[in-house]
Amino acid sequence: MVGLHSTHNEAQAGITLIELLISMTILTVVTTMIILSWIALQSSSVQTASANDSRSSARDALDRMSTEIRSADSQPGSAAGSAVFTVATPTEVDFYSSYNVVGQASDGSGSGALRLTKLYLTGTMPYQQLVMVRDTNNNVTLGDAGDLTIVLADNVVNNSVPSTGSPTAVFTYGYRDTTNGPFLSATTITTANLAKIVSVNIRVIVDKNLNHLPVPIDLQTIVRPQNAPSS
Hints:
Layout: H1 2-12, H2 17-70, E1 72-73, E2 85-88, E3 92-97, E4 115-122, E5 128-134, E6 148-156, E7 171-176, E8 183-186, E9 197-207, E10 216-223
């Protein structure tokens, strides 16, 4: 009897087919969960890096444009009190600047170092670029082969993600129509009022979530040109 009982126990030892299938199913589910979690983590990491790059690019562009506009000065040879800006629209501002120009005076104010500079929004929506062009060959023509051209920011959506139902201006200008008059604001300045601009509001909106639901980063600052009128 003892021998028969031992043989019966040995026959029942091991894993049944059902137990094996259950184990494999559980292992498959756990593995799938791990893989999906890893993919989600990778996607999140990529989106975070892209968002950080977009934010950093927008801040760098804002800083560069602020510095350029702050250094703006009247056209070389012009009379005192002449306009600092030559063009002032919602997407473009032109002026003379000596910032970072080779050969400028040690105090940065040498008129011989002033070069016509343009900051503007260009490209096809929804993603446009902010670009700076400098008349480095000093022929008073912007955009030819001898000029410096720098892309300051990509993925700009000022015209694609409006905040109030219309395109958002990159540049808005503060000015006084009369001496000590009320402070006015406009996105386009006529030639007659170019010399009255006292500040420039720069607003840059970039998309940090490319190829997905747009998530805009909205940055802005106000700059006063160092040679703007004081009244």
